[in-house]
Amino acid sequence: MLSNQVVPKRVRVVIVGGGPAGLLLARKLTRDGMDCVILERRSRPYVLSRIRAGVLEQGSVDQLREAGVSQRLHEEGLVHGGCLLSDENGHFRIDFAELVGKSVTVYGQTEVTRDLYEALDSDGVPIVHEAGNVRLHGIDTANPSVTFDRGRLNYSIACNFIAGCDGFHGVSRESIPAGARKQFEKSYPFGWLGVLSESPPVNDELIYSRSGRGFALASMRNPLLSRYYIQVPNSENADDWSADRFWTELRRRLPDSIAECLETGKVVEKSIAPIRTFVSEPMSFGRLFLCGDASHIVPPTGAKGLNLAFSDVHYLHDALIEEYRSGDGRKLKCYSESALARVWKSMRFSLWMTNLLHRIPDASEFERRIQDTEFTHIRDTVNGRALLAENYTGLPY
Ligand code: RFL
Ligand code: PHB
């Protein structure tokens, strides 16, 4: 809601999209004295009810701390020094702390979003919700602007820069002429059926489980709220999955010793997320800079989507501030290249984790044997486990 504020006529940066990327960028720019406005298509309650990511790399936690929005994260976030990988032969632990001296923090994206909203409210940053028909103009000129509707009124905001943080289905990426973009896409014939359950997590660390029936993931939000996923074919409909059917299938895919400990509870959310990969290059065009899912989607297996959105924000904030303070636009010119280097590394890891852990329909026996061997190699070698730990906990910016 745009409570007592009026829509500004001019700001330095218009941020399209009030997801985690847009909100964090706004907070960081505001703290450095750059004025901005956020235009969000949905209502605030809608944005705050979306259940998505759960795992934050140390770099993401550090950014939230530097942005002064980590109090609740530090109080309630669960620091994990490892995770379990399992298959029909049992399970083993990837000890992040021992292998690479790092950890991850389990703290829901919903909570990150709430914390950022509260901080931006106290900063007085204008956030326009339910902004319809957002259009970007003059992105390859020195005078870009953004127009939108709200109710029956039309608005236009002039700016120096536009940050396209409007996710995969947003308008920013499509504002770059098709001839100036290159897109890479790969979809999978399966998705993840996810359930949020009011029950204690089955284990105090995440379990990534590979089974002949398909992949399963046991995650969590807090000591009383669990998040579970199972791989399902794209043809499945979430409504066809009763709670009983879900729990039975999940148990079959977890090692027996773990399945025996599974406590079920009231299912408070259930949905199917497609598994896909997508990269659009470059991440900038003229005065428009894309961040997060607006430019790339990774499969959730490596828990990288939100973290990549935050690393983009790191590079973009750094470049905008340099230009603002000294007029030096060199970092802005390199933004796409800097951000994409990390995007491709995370993409590689997410694909590798996906191929390692899922049951790939139509895989030949040869391909299955290679997959088994890859899994065993990780289990049995320090280097294999260290490679996973290094990527999972987050590569340096
Ligand atoms: P978002 O979160 O999609 O936010 C974009 C915002 O832009 C708004 N918008 C518009 N606003 C104005 N005008 C328009 N025309 C607009 N079009 C769209 C949208 O309403 C929205 O508010 O993108 P952002 O900020 O780049 O953040 C990306 C992350 O949300 C995403 O990458 C992660 O959720 C991915 N992800 C995970 N990432 C992790 O790092 N760790 C995880 O553990 C993890 N688990 C997951 C995930 C994603 C999942 N799903 C649902 C695909 C688990 C799942 C199941
Ligand atoms: C989650 O808790 O939602 C989650 C955790 C790890 C992943 C993906 C999703 O790899």
Give a brief description:
The chain has 397 residues and is α+β, with helices and mostly antiparallel strands. The chain has helices at residues 20-31, 44-49, 58-66, 71-76, 96-100, 109-123, 172-175, 243-253, 256-259, 305-326, 330-357, 365-380, 382-393, and strands at residues 10-16, 36-39, 55-56, 78-80, 82-87, 90-95, 104-106, 127-128, 132-137, 145-150, 153-164, 182-198, 207-209, 216-222, 225-233, 266-281, 284-285, 288-290, 296-297.
SSE layout:
Elements: E1 10-16, H1 20-31, E2 36-39, H2 44-49, E3 55-56, H3 58-66, H4 71-76, E4 78-80, E5 82-87, E6 90-95, H5 96-100, E7 104-106, H6 109-123, E8 127-128, E9 132-137, E10 145-150, E11 153-164, H7 172-175, E12 182-198, E13 207-209, E14 216-222, E15 225-233, H8 243-253, H9 256-259, E16 266-281, E17 284-285, E18 288-290, E19 296-297, H10 305-326, H11 330-357, H12 365-380, H13 382-393
Parallel strand pairs: 1-2, 1-11, 2-8, 5-13, 11-18
Antiparallel strand pairs: 3-7, 4-7, 5-6, 9-10, 10-11, 12-15, 12-16, 13-14, 14-15, 16-19, 17-18
Helix pairs in contact: 1-6, 1-10, 10-11, 12-13
P-hydroxybenzoic acid is lined by residues 53-55, 206, 217, 219, 227, 300-301, 303.
Q: Helix count, per DSSP?
A: 13
- Say what the CATH topology of the domain at 2-54 and 109-185 and 276-353 is: FAD/NAD(P)-binding domain
User: Which small molecules are bound?
Assistant: 8-demethyl-8-dimethylamino-flavin-adenine-dinucleotide, P-hydroxybenzoic acid
- Secondary structure class reads alpha+beta
The average pLDDT score comes to 96
pLDDT < 50 runs, ≥5 residues = none
The major β-sheet equals:
8 strands, mixed
> Tell me, what's the shape?
globular
Helix percent reads 25-40%
Number of strands: 19
- Please, what is the CATH homologous superfamily of the domain at 2-54 and 109-185 and 276-353? FAD/NAD(P)-binding domain
Beta-strand content bin: 25-35%
Overall CATH class of the domain at 2-54 and 109-185 and 276-353: Alpha Beta
Q: Distance between termini?
A: 34 Å
Radius of gyration equals 21 Å
Q: In the CATH classification, which architecture of the domain at 2-54 and 109-185 and 276-353 applies?
A: 3-Layer(bba) Sandwich
